[in-house]
Amino acid sequence: MNSVASSVVPLESNFLVPNSTFWVELIAFAIIVFVLAKWVIPPINKAMGARQEAIRKQFTDLEQAQAEAHKAEEEFRAQIAEARHEAAKIREEAREQGAAIIAEMREQAQAEAARIVEHAHNQIEADRQQAVTSLRGEVGRLATSLAGRIVGESLEDPARQSRVVERFLDELETAGDKTSTTAGAN
Question: Is residue 8 left, alpha or beta, with left meaning phi > 0 and alpha meaning psi from -120 to 50?
Fold first, then answer.
């Protein structure tokens, strides 16, 4: 009997047949799953959904901020390019104005130089005329004095004195012109 008894497996130890603890464990597991599904998982899912939404919003905000940053960078580059263009334009205008001012100053300087030269010519001519007049008077006095000594009579008559001086100076000028003409021909 031993052999038969050993070949028959008791019902309790058969793993295919559930025993009473299995049912208790199954009910406890179902209760835990129900409690988790009813009160624990929904707040976790809600928190995870909120967190995912917050992350999506952050990504959206980040993309928007990047787009705004790119836009601001492009505007900044456009402003820099415009400022450079404006600076080049201002430099060119300044060069043109400088050239115009220099040309105007040259014209003014040339006009002033011409005016000074003209004034100098006029002054020289006036000084020459004054010197000629003074020299004529001085030469006339010397000539009348000399002529009076040579002739032996006084030439105090102003009209006579003036005629003698004029004739003498005319003869000197004529002689001077002949000398300069012959000198220029040689």
Answer: beta
Map residue 83 onto helix, strand or coil.
helix
Q: Rounded to an integer, what distance in angstroms lies between the CA atom of residue 13 and that of residue 53?
A: 53
Tokens of 32: 């835990």
**Would you write out the chain's pLDDT as a tens digit for each of its 186 residues?**
445 445 554 555 677 777 788 889 999 999 999 999 999 999 999 999 999 999 999 999 999 999 999 999 999 999 999 999 999 999 999 999 999 999 999 999 999 999 999 999 999 999 988 888 888 778 777 777 777 777 666 666 777 767 777 787 788 788 877 776 776 666
Q: What three-state secondary structure class fits 85?
A: helix
Segments making up each domain of the chain, as ranges: 20-174
What's the whole-model pTM score?
0.39
| Helix-helix angle 158-185:41-151, to 10 degrees | 120
Length in residues, the chain: 186
The label of the residue with tokens 């409690």 reads: 35
Three-state DSSP class for residue 145:
helix
Q: In one letter, which amino acid is 26?
A: L
